[in-house]
Amino acid sequence: MATVKEIAERAGVSIGTVDRVVHQRGRVSKETKLRIEAILNELNYQPNFFAKNLKLSKTFVFVVLMPQVHQDAKFWALFVPGIEKALSELESYNIRCDIFYYNRNDEQSFIQTARLAMENNPDGMIIAPVKNRSIEEFVNNLPETIPYVFIDSKIGNEKFLSFVGQNQYQSGRLAGYLMHLIAPDLQKPVAVFSSHTAEFQIGERVRGFVDYWAAAGRNNLNYYDVTGVEDSILYYELAKKCLESCTNIQGIFVSNTYAHGVSQYLTEAGKSEVRLIGYDAVPDNITEVQKGGIDFIINMRPDLQAYQAFYQLYYSVVMHRSVAHEFKMPLDLLTKENINHYQY
Questions:
Q1: For the whole prediction, is pTM greater than 0.85?
Q2: Under CATH, what is the fold of the domain 168-299?
Q3: Is residue 256 within 8 Å of residue 195, measured between CB atoms?
Q4: Beta-carbon count within 10 A of 14 CB
Q5: Phi-psi region of 57 (alpha: psi -120 to 50; beta: other; left: phi over 0)
Q6: 296, 297, 298, 302 alpha-carbon torsion, rounded to 10°
Q7: Were 82 and a residue from 130, 131, 163, 303 both cysteine, which residue would form a disulfide, CB within 3.0 to 4.6 Å?
Q8: Which homologous superfamily does the CATH classification assign to the domain defined by 54-165+302-329?
């Protein structure tokens, strides 16, 4: 890594001037600052806050607020390895991370869990929100001294440090495009299964799917909404209801993690010709893709979301660097042909 002295020599300035730019203190002309910042970026220079933090014996406390790992077909468990990986890589920087899990179906559970999390006096937070009034109130009332990063989805105002996740609308359009390819019969309808429609990400996925469908000149969509606490049995029963009420359905788009429940019904009912697209590389979905019951899974890379979110906090809180307000994840596709070679 380049030293401050080497950067100063390249920029034609004193070491003190470089130090003022790095630590954002004191006066430096705009032209000089831009020249030094260009060199810093070119060399990927990182100031040695490590030594400073050791000297001060400073421990940074990061707190993660997320739903319980068994919920949504164990979807939330997929975030934990990303947090653990980032924490392991940054163990020399005196960072402690505490994860607090709340019941996504119980608003009171979030209130109690958030209260416990705040008792840790966090220096930064990673929050996986679901749509309820208490979570929105919580983030809107967080002190400005506590930066927070959203993963999976975002709610409330724009005070968050960063959002790490997919463009949900575009993922819905991608699903619409794929369904258009594998379910081409203009006379046969396609079903859209949705739930938690008040949640931003689900609504955006459905909106993207519908918009693509309309742009393709197709209007044969049947809508089915799930109510109540979700599980694979609920989606199994919804698929049964769908196929019994409309026997010529040619495809089903499941806008969340429960495509495996639908796949299980289609297999048992001998409806393997019905095309199926869903979300998330949870264990049950992977099994159904391997068996050929699900055509496409759009993977949100929760492990990478958590990993990048942790680094966003690290860059901001520990390194005092600016970070992107939004960090978009790629739209990964899993199929029977690639799933056994995919790196989760």
A1: no
A2: Rossmann fold (3.40.50)
A3: yes
A4: 10
A5: left
A6: -160
A7: 303
A8: Response regulator (3.40.50.2300)
